[in-house]
Design a protein that fits this description.
There is one protein chain. It is built from four helices and 20 strands. The protein has helices at 2-34, 36-46, 111-160, 166-212, and strands spanning 53-55, 58-80, 86-91, 98-99, 104-109, 215-217, 222-227, 234-235, 247-262, 274-279, 287-294, 304-312, 323-340, 345-347, 350-357, 360-365, 367-372, 375-380, 388-389, 406-407. The protein has a six-stranded antiparallel barrel with strand order 2-9-12-11-10-13. A four-stranded antiparallel sheet has the order 6-5-3-8, with no helix packed on it.
């Protein structure tokens, strides 16, 4: 009896153990079915083909861009020199002062030249008096000729009636000839006096002109960039061997931006091409301008062409002498068909992209154009509807089967 009870108890324990193992197995199966690794394993077994990302070509505006360094200069700048020698009696401006065209910047004291002007004026007055006397002499001799001609006609009438002798008639004729000769001399003296007056007047005007140089004036509206003299300084007239400026005046309401375009790009450069100018160390927004002029010749040493961009500078935020970075936009092409630069490769057969045809990688030859902002222009071999593999790096070789592609709209 005890043996039977022992067997029954062991059988019950074995049955409970089997039930417990079955429950644990069911829970484990459910856990494995819900775990990601299990799902991935099943999915991998279901489809082992690689997956690629594709994009559709987009139409945008592209351009050939050139990044180069530039120098900023004043639109106009001039050094002002002394035309005459003397002491500076007045200096009216300093650096940074704004001046107007014709404004007096400094005055040179020249007492000797003022005396020369007074002497020239006195000489002119004397020559004008001499000319007036010569004119009166001409009038006098003209009147004398008229008188002598009248006497001659009267004497000739009397001589015809034998009322006077031939000797008296000859004397009258001689007096008429003398009067004509005197008139010729008087007219010559008058012409000489007129020439002397012109010479004296020219001397006066010359002295006045030189004396006008005693005032140093601004040639245009601008800013005084340099002042190299002080009141009381002795300044010498500028010559070919001695050129010391008194002031430098610059016009900066417009700034010239000078940059050099290399030989490889000059054929694409045109007047009015957009330009972005960003001065070094300048925290504000870049300045937008356009190509204003270029030299139409290349420097034989650098093979670069000097190009200028004019920038309006009404607030005078730009200063001559600054350096800047310039981005020139040349050969602008609107509505160009483009793909990401990472999608294009090239070899000995030319440029190409990868596309997906019947879920297989396919090589597609294209003709590439400009590269701009990470995109490449495609001028032939591609349409807007063609799906293009977003990046060619790491893509399986042509003919490889792939999963249905994922289309990206962010490239």
């Amino acid at each position: 009896m005890n043996g039977m009870n022992f067997i029954a108890r062991n059988s019950i324990k074995a049955l409970v153990a089997l039930i417990a193992i079955g429950v644990v197995g069911m829970v484990a199966d459910r856990y494995l079915a819900a775990s990601p690794s299990a799902s991935t394993s099943k999915s991998t077994k279901a489809d082992s083909r690689p997956r690629v990302e594709v994009v559709h070509p987009r139409r945008i505006t592209v351009a050939q861009r050139l990044q180069t360094n530039a120098t900023l200069e004043a639109f106009e700048a001039t050094d002002l020199f002394a035309k005459i020698s003397g002491y500076l009696s007045d200096v009216r401006v300093d650096i940074g002062d704004h001046v107007k065209a014709g404004q007096v910047l400094a005055v040179i004291y020249t007492p000797e030249m003022e005396k020369e002007l007074a002497e020239a004026k006195a000489q002119l007055a004397s020559k004008q008096s001499s000319l007036e006397r010569a004119r009166r002499d001409v009038d006098h001799y003209k009147a004398n000729i008229t008188l002598q001609d009248a006497l001659l006609r009267r004497r000739e009438e009397l001589s015809a009636g034998h009322w006077i002798s031939d000797r008296v008639l000859d004397e009258v004729r001689a007096n008429a000839e003398i009067a004509k000769a005197d008139l010729g001399v008087a007219e010559a003296n008058r012409a000489l006096a007129a020439d002397e007056v012109d010479l004296a007047a020219a001397t006066v005007e010359k002295t006045k002109a030189l004396l006008a140089y005693s005032q140093i004036v601004a040639p245009f509206d601008g800013v005084v960039a340099r002042r190299l003299v002080n009141r009381g300084d002795l300044v010498q007239a500028a010559t070919a061997t001695r050129m010391t400026p008194l002031f430098t005046v610059q016009r900066i309401d417009i700034i010239r931006v000078f940059c050099d375009v290399p030989e490889s790009d000059v054929s694409h450069l045109h007047i009015a091409d957009p330009a972005i100018v960003k001065p070094f160390g300048f925290d504000g927004k870049p300045f937008i301008g356009q190509v204003t002029r270029f030299s139409t010749r290349l420097d034989p040493e650098t093979r670069n062409m000097r190009t200028e961009i004019d920038l309006s500078n009404p607030e005078e935020r730009l200063y001559p002498g600054m350096y800047a970075e310039v981005s020139l936009e040349m050969n602008r092409r609107p509505d160009a068909l483009t793909v990401p630069a990472d999608a294009v490769a090239s070899d000995g057969d030319g440029s190409f992209v990868y596309t997906i045809t019947d879920n297989r990688i396919t090589r597609l030859a294209i003709k590439a154009g400009l590269t701009d902002n990470g995109r490449i222009e495609v001028t032939a071999g591609l349409s807007e509807e063609t799906p293009v593999v977003a990046t060619i790096q790491g893509v399986p070789p042509p003919g490889t089967a792939v999963q249905p592609p994922m289309v990206s709209e962010n490239r």
